[in-house]
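Worked Example 4.2. Consider the chain below.
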Amino acid sequence: MQDFMVTDLRVEGEVEQQPAATTHPAPAASASSSLWIVLIVIAAAAALGFLRWRRQRPRDPVIRDPKIGFLNLLGEEGEPLLAEDRTALAPFFASVQESRDLPAPACDVLLVYCDIGRDGRIFATEVSLRQLLRRSRARILVVGSENTSESCLTAVQEAGHSGANLVLTMARNGAEFPELFSRLFAEMKKGTPMPAVYSQIAPRGKIFLADAGDLVFASVQ
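Applying the procedure from the previous section yields the following structure tokens:
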């Protein structure tokens, strides 16, 4: 267990022997109180260490019966993109959800269609990619609409160490986008980790951050 140290905890106060006539029960009570304080401190430190360990332990890289969610925050502009991607990608997932407004649907893979501002947040909102990930609990987030390289880089930096794999799009390159992710998810279902597949495909006009590491898909029999 890391980040857990208890130092210099001592129970002091051995009582000097006094004549029977002058001996009082107070020192024994004081020593007992000190012991209880020490035990409480140790228990609190152990609990804190356990919570830190739970937060830091690596998550299972296998996503079983993966669920995909589509979040369109572009209105009519995003509908053709969502329809194109859903047709191509839905067959790789156990269930599919769609939403046209926040909050993001709960899922394992989240495709978002939005404009990203210069501050890295979704345009005209106070919502960041990190917040989308926290609410949806997604392990993979893909921004499927095109954004500037500056906005994408700022968003990636803001969402760094989020515990998810991120793909941000600067250019969809026509039909290349759904074809790319169809190949990606097909290989992940075969057990090939996401970063390895992505490096083989080497798509153009995308930014990839593998903060969740070697994610793969699996079906529960």
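Confidence is low (pLDDT under 50) at residues 1-23, 50-57. The chain has six helices and eight strands. Compare this with Example 4.1 before moving on.
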